[in-house]
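Quick one, tokens below. Sequence please?
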């Protein structure tokens, strides 16, 4: 597991694009319609590098050799009254690597990094009824509500989305 700087995002953009395309092909509603071309996925990740360089986004990846198997990001709030929170975005695990706890490890990494950055509240949205929902619930995330017809699935069908949040606390020093 490694946190990527802007250069790392650019360097691994091909692997991240392949992971994004695999996730969309697998039916996950993560903001893209199928079929997602590699050029579009590369461009999207290329645009994220500027956000990483500016400190607005943190990106972690898990690799198997040169292949990106998973990623998760934290989008930090820019407004002065919101700097205590961040959005968990684009938690993706390659379909061939699922079922090994990789999603849980990525989620825990992002949560730990959020605490270290002084974030006390995380939020996210995910397709209602998706496998991701089970992960978030089992990891202690609280559903805040469901919005009907929030986003289209990769096939273009409008689906409900559930908004989740998780309060974070800094670890208590032992001693």
């Amino acid at each position: 597991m490694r946190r990527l700087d802007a250069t790392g995002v650019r360097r691994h953009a091909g692997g991240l694009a392949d992971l994004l395309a695999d996730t969309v092909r697998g039916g996950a509603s993560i903001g893209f319609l199928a079929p997602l071309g590699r050029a579009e996925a590369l461009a999207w990740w290329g645009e994220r590098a500027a956000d990483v360089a500016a400190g607005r986004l943190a990106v972690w990846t898990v690799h198997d050799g040169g292949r990106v198997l998973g990623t998760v990001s934290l989008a930090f709030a820019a407004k002065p009254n919101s700097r205590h929170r961040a959005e968990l975005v684009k938690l993706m695990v390659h379909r061939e690597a699922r079922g090994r706890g990789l999603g849980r490890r990525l989620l825990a990494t992002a949560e730990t990094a959020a605490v270290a950055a002084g974030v006390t509240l995380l939020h996210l949205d995910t397709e209602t009824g998706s496998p991701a929902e089970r992960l978030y619930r089992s990891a202690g995330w609280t559903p805040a509500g469901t919005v009907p017809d929030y986003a289209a699935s990769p096939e273009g069908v409008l689906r409900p989305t559930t908004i989740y949040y998780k309060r974070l606390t800094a670890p208590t020093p032992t001693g």
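The longest strand covers residues 142-152. Residues 20 and 41 are 7 Å apart (CA to CA).
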